[in-house]
Amino acid sequence: MKGMMKNLMGNVMLNKRIKYFVCMLVFFALLFIGYKYFKAQSIIRDGEVLAGMVRIADQKYVYQAFMTTGKKKKIAEIDNWDVYEIDEDKSHTFLLLKSFTGEQYIVKENYQIPTAGKVNCVYVDGQRIEDKEILEAFNEILTTKYNDGTYYYISNNKEEQKRWKHFVLGYEDCPVGTDNSIYGIAKIDSKWVIVFNSDLGQKDENGYQAIYYEISPECGKIFEKSNIWKY
After folding, report:
1. Can you tell me whether residue 108 is helix, strand or coil?
2. Which stretches are transmembrane (predicted)?
């Protein structure tokens, strides 16, 4: 009799555990379905992607190249394009379009991109730099009045290309990099130098003829101790 009661109690406890497990399984399944539904409902589908303009709900955007560290979450699906916010900008002033054909970058139609002023961010090798000393160095470089530069041939060979770092800058309140006027900065013959894209000559099969300008020793020291040229 005691054995039967023990088995009965064991079966009751087992059934309770099974019911608890099933209830928890149903709960998490409903939670997941609710999350997927909420996420789907939050995706904007009102808009159009045209050759010269993109409309997302009531906001118009224009195409504009810029540098970003990458996409964040999807906010819209329009005309077979997925629209993503970017890491640096939660205001959705700058957005990224993606489809199977490629990527497009857009900015709000009424936003005036700063093209000069205080440098607030620098991009190099896909990374965003906000180090105060680096930014101050670029502010000095861009406000320096350079004398005649030095002619220099930028070869296509790997060793030559490794010494040059290419930068994209952002100014004032702009959250991304939009100014790619700098071809590159490198250390040549113990001097830190800069080449602007406007000073690149005609390209041949082996490289470019260019003009470089020497950077101040103070800026050179800042670059010297940075990790930018170590990779």
Report:
1. strand
2. 20-38
